[in-house]
Design goal:
The structure holds two protein chains of two kinds. By secondary structure, chain A is an alpha/beta fold. In chain A, about 25% of the residues lie in helices and about 30% in strands. Chain A has a nine-stranded mixed beta sheet, with helices on both faces. In chain A, helix 3 packs across helix 4 and helix 5 packs parallel to helix 8. Chain A is elongated. In chain B, strands 11-10-9-12-8-1-6-7-13 form a nine-stranded mixed beta sheet, with helices on both faces. Chain B has a two-stranded antiparallel sheet with strand order 2-5. The N and C termini of chain B lie far apart (about 60 Å). Classes of the chains: A alpha/beta, B alpha/beta. At the A-B interface, helix 3, helix 4, strand 7, strand 8 and strand 9 of A face helix 3, helix 4, strand 9, strand 10 and strand 11 of B.
Chain lengths: ~325, ~260
């Protein structure tokens, strides 16, 4: 068996989600390779080796600089055609989803998405929580290559030595793949990790009362070394940026620790965060739905509890 | 300017929504409606048509014949006609099979702009547009939160995990819109009445020249093999904030779990 993992990168760093998928694949399949696509990305190959890549294919070309999906469909499809990979795996993202959909159509290859786990010990079986995580389904593929997108946070990025032999590959692009062009980028002004990359998330909801309430959450997040996230209700009210929104119309996150402050836990928020390892909720309403799926629930005033908790955390860390 | 909008009829969200343990497919026997996110794509198509002063908005879907009921909701918003691929041989189509069928229906229309909503609430995939663009050999832009059409160029702002990308692409193009793009209009009573008389076409796979082996289970490359319960989280430890010591109790828990 041989497996190829798409290694997404931004600002000169391979995304944690990609490294998680890579290390999971490498732990099951010794012939796991990574593919890096971009301009000036060759140096990242060594990082892929640390997470178990036996081989790293590098497509380094100025034409591949913009993070657009279709040129990457061209590179991955021809690589799979030449090397005959059995599995092609992606950590889910806006970019990776578009690439996977394109590769599926190009190669006529089955794609399963939103997977939380995969077992390659016998017939390859993927596991996915579907319908707002109300049902768990086992999914399979009837042909190779098998394509899969994994939900963010599914796998820990675990260091393990890989040979990391670098092989450069060319980029021969289809006409239509180069028609969409990137004309500009607006980076989010938020500091620290994006909410999908953070291990600890402090999330604010409508219960904060007003936008200034995010100040105390930022202090707690900073004390814990995490990031601040938000709900749809507060983003719709322009209290906090969309990039921090968790939920059905925002992002799906799975941090090690999720702290919700004034978050009621509506279903559309729940589907975006219920895979969090540990959930702590603070809400003054004892009937808030979030308490049904929290590990710890505190009924009380977040404006008193959060600043006090921040002080305690700071004091403990010295 | 011809705009095709791909729409889907989905089971209503709620406790009755389920997978059928017999067929291992979505249970589509209950109440259904137009996928909520598709209304943003319909709205986008209508505003482009209105700004241009002319054009046609065509709805494209695949599903059972009854799915026309949901498509009429989009006709009532103002779309001009509906094309539904309804064929028993297409039942159980996965991404590969669905792309084969929908791409054929779209090729028949030769639209300048093909629009999608940001996700179907039942499949939760958000990948179909990329497959369709590949099949139609068109550029694709997804997660579009702002869109302008200048002549024959689409300028779009795309939301990603890292911020926003501004992307330009020439027509014909496939665009998947985010629900933050617009506020979909509600159908007027007049719109609802007019919808009944608008052209509503039902096509079979053979009408499209799609071989039955390319659709349904035969054309699919993925399977569902088992259903189960998602793992439960266990009991919630509840703390009432009496005496104001709950911050201490949270810290204790965070320390125990090695977060602080």
């Amino acid at each position: 068996m041989s497996t190829l993992v798409f290694l997404e990168h931004a600002d000169g760093v391979i995304q944690k989600g990609s490294l998680g998928v890579l290390s999971k694949a490498a732990s099951m399949d010794s012939e796991t390779a990574g593919v890096l696509i971009g301009a000036g990305v060759g140096d990242l190959a060594a990082d892929a080796a640390k997470y178990g890549a036996a081989k790293v294919f590098v497509a380094d070309d100025p034409a591949l600089e913009s993070p657009l999906p279709q040129p990457r469909v061209d590179v991955i499809s021809s690589l799979v055609g030449e090397q005959g990979f059995d599995n092609v795996l992606f950590g889910a993202s806006v970019l990776a989803s578009d690439i996977a959909g394109g590769v599926s159509a190009r190669l006529g290859a089955g794609l399963n998405w939103d997977l939380g786990d995969i077992d390659m010990s016998g017939d390859v079986v993927g596991q996915r929580n579907a319908l707002g995580d109300t049902v768990q389904i086992d999914v399979g593929w009837t042909s190779t290559p098998r394509l899969a997108l994994f939900r963010s946070g599914s796998f820990e990025a675990t260091e393990q030595p890989g040979a990391g032999a670098v092989e450069n590959v060319g980029a021969s692009l289809e006409d239509f793949s180069s028609k969409a062009t990137l004309v500009g980028q607006d980076k989010e002004e938020s500091e620290g990790p994006s909410i999908e990359e953070a291990d600890i998330l402090v999330t604010g909801g409508r219960g904060l009362g007003d936008p200034s309430g995010f100040g105390i959450l930022e202090e707690l997040a900073s004390a814990l070394g995490g990031a601040v996230a938000s709900t749809r209700a507060v983003v719709d009210s322009d209290w906090y940026p969309y990039a921090t929104q968790i939920g059905q119309t925002g992002k799906t996150v799975a941090p090690k620790l999720y702290i919700g402050a004034g978050v009621s836990g509506a279903i559309q928020h729940k589907v975006g965060m219920q895979s969090s390892q540990t959930i702590v909720a603070i809400n003054k309403d004892p009937n808030a739905p979030i308490f049904d799926f929290s590990d710890v629930g505190i009924v009380g005033d977040l404006h008193e509890i959060v600043p006090k908790l921040t002080e305690l955390v700071k004091a403990r860390k010295g | 300017m011809k705009i095709a909008v791909c729409v889907k009829e989905v089971p209503d969200q709620g406790p009755s929504r389920r997978m059928d343990p017999g067929s291992l497919r979505m249970d589509r026997s209950g109440d259904k409606s137009l996928n909520e996110y598709d209304r943003n794509a319909v709205e986008a198509a209508l505003s482009i048509k209105e700004a241009a002063g002319d054009g046609e908005v065509v709805l494209i879907s695949m599903g059972p014949e009854k799915a026309l009921d949901s498509m009429r909701k989009a006709l009532a918003m103002g779309a001009d006609r509906a094309v539904l691929v309804a064929d028993d041989a297409a039942t159980g189509s996965d991404l590969v099979a669905t792309s084969n069928v929908l791409a054929a229906a779209l090729e028949r229309e030769s639209a300048d702009l093909v629009l999608f909503g940001q996700q179907a609430s039942d499949g939760e995939g958000a990948v179909l547009w990329a497959s369709i663009a590949e099949k139609l050999k068109m550029p694709v832009v997804s997660q579009v939160s702002e869109m302008d059409l200048n002549g024959s160029t689409v300028s779009a702002k795309r939301q990603t995990e890292n911020g926003y990308d501004r992307i330009e692409a020439p027509l014909p193009v496939v665009v998947a819109v985010a629900d933050s793009l617009n506020e979909p209009r509600y159908p007027s009573l007049k719109g609802i009445m007019a919808a009944k008389k608008k052209p509503q076409e039902t096509l079979s796979l053979s009408d499209l020249g799609v071989d039955a082996s390319a659709a349904g289970e035969a054309g699919s490359r993925t399977t569902v093999s088992a259903l189960g319960e998602p793992p439960s989280r266990g009991e919630t430890m509840m703390i009432e904030d009496e005496g104001g010591d709950s911050a201490e109790k949270i810290l204790e828990f965070l320390v125990e779990r090695k977060f602080a």
